TrEMBL record:
The keyword Transcription regulation does not apply. NCBIfam families: hisD (TIGR00069). The keyword Cell membrane does not apply. Binds 1 zinc ion per subunit. NAD(+) binds at residues 122, 183, 206. It comes from Candidatus Gallimonas gallistercoris. This is Histidinol dehydrogenase. Pfam families: Histidinol_dh. Substrate binds at residues 229, 251, 254, 320, 353, 407, 412.
């Protein structure tokens, strides 16, 4: 990995803007086609992109397919999956969605919280099965009280990966449809003859999925617009260079566009991390992907202090942030922008990816400045509740009428004066 000073880090920290005009043009065409032609359009795109021939009878995963999937998952793997489900569901359930209503002097104000009726969950099915994404998107919706949870995931030659199906069944998804890409997002957003229209779409995906979510936003709610995975590791002299190297590669192997950056106050540590990354990279099964990722978007930045490291982190607003320092609790208050923060030597990023409980569907590309981790709030809505007594309206009515009249909304004013007996007929 290249090692640079803070002054030399501008190129490494930069995220070049890509307008993606051609991809957006294709997405608009696909979304419009699915909105107009429904199932028929989805089937055509699935055959073209995923070599999957579908019909109304095979579109939705059958009980027989679930049963076959269970036979392909080992008892040990199923046990691990169920333990992860327990942790993740318990975490989202205890997070709490407290309603808040207060009554003072005849004025009741506040809000109540309601789940959406239907949630659509997108689960990628590209280079590797991502059953963990089923858990991380379905379980927050379930904890929020969503009644109907629909999963969309691509099938390869007609078959969904067994572990994805088992995960969906174990999490309580109502249905799994064999569809991916922009056509899946469009089907969930607009509904088809077979796919029910949902209220919120959540879950990670490639550039076409992301652009499709952007295109249908407003027709439905979405969780976020996520891009390639990324990690930033703040490390001091207490860090084990081999462990840091392992964590760097845990993100770099995701995608050639993934970003892995280390910020450290120790020159010696930086040198040793770089050596250990090279050594581990040499024997990594996904070496080519990780190597390209590190060449384009990886590096080690040297700073004089941990405060400077925190400043860099806040500027990057990373998806995953590891505070691999002697006292992570002292550094945490200085962190403002991150998707998820992993504290200390024994909390590598995969702990959060799979098992601890907090979600791994996180804002990327600096969007942690305004997006947040996927959580049960994505699947709920706050509804305001207001109640006035007669006495309260009499006391406040003059002010309400005055403000309405200032906007020339006389009917608004008269809706109040009618109740106060002040209206001239």
């Amino acid at each position: 990995m290249k090692i640079v000073t803070r002054e030399e880090s501008a190129e490494l920290l930069e995220r070049p803007f890509e307008e993606r005009k051609e991809e957006m043009k294709r997405v608009k065409e696909i979304v419009g086609n699915v909105a107009e032609r429904g199932d028929e359009a989805v089937f055509e795109y699935e055959e073209r992109f995923d070599k999957t021939v579908l019909s109304k009878e095979t579109f939705r995963v059958s009980e027989e397919e679930y049963a076959a999937a269970y036979k392909e998952v080992s008892p040990e793997l199923l046990e691990s999956l169920r333990l992860a489900i327990r942790n993740i569901y318990a975490y989202h359930s205890r997070a709490g969605r407290k309603e808040h209503i207060v009554t003072e002097k005849g004025r009741t104000t506040g809000y109540v919280i309601r789940p959406v009726e239907r949630a659509g969950i997108y689960v990628p099915g590209g280079t590797a099965p991502l059953s963990s994404s089923v858990l991380m998107a379905v379980l927050p919706a379930k904890a929020a009280g969503v009644e109907h949870i629909i999963v969309a995931t691509p099938a390869k030659e007609g078959k969904v990966h067994p572990l994805t199906l088992v995960a969906a069944k174990e999490c309580g998804a109502e249905a799994v449809f064999k569809m991916g890409g922009a056509q899946a997002v469009a089907a969930l957003a607009y509904g088809t003859e077979s796919v029910p229209k949902v209220d919120v779409i959540a879950g990670p995906g490639n550039i076409y999925v992301t652009l499709a979510k952007k295109e249908v936003y407003g027709q439905v709610g979405i969780d976020m617009l996520a891009g390639p995975s990324e990690i930033l590791i703040v490390a001091d002299e207490s860090a084990d260079p081999d462990w840091v190297a392992a964590d760097v590669l845990s993100q770099a192997e995701h995608d050639v566009l993934a970003r892995a950056i280390v910020v450290t106050t120790s020159k010696e540590l930086a040198k040793r991390i770089s050596e250990r990354v090279d050594a581990r990279l040499a024997v990594l099964p996904r070496k080519e992907i990780a190597e390209r990722s590190l060449l384009s978007s990886g590096g080690i930045i040297l700073t004089d202090t941990l405060d400077e490291a925190a400043e860099i982190s806040n500027k990057i607003a990373p998806e995953h942030l590891e505070l691999y320092v002697k006292d992570p609790d002292a550094l945490l208050p200085k962190i403002r922008n991150a998707g998820a923060v992993f504290m200390g030597a024994y909390t590598p990023e995969p702990v959060g990816d799979y098992f601890a409980g907090p979600d791994h569907i996180l804002p990327t590309g600096g969007s942690a400045r305004f997006f947040e981790v996927l959580n049960e709030d994505v699947f709920t809505r706050k509804m305001s509740v207001i109640r006035y007594t007669e006495e309260a309206l009499k006391e406040d009515g003059e002010h309400i009428v005055r403000l309405a009249e200032s906007e020339s909304l006389m009917a608004h004013a008269r809706a109040v004066t009618a109740r106060l007996g002040e209206e001239n007929q």
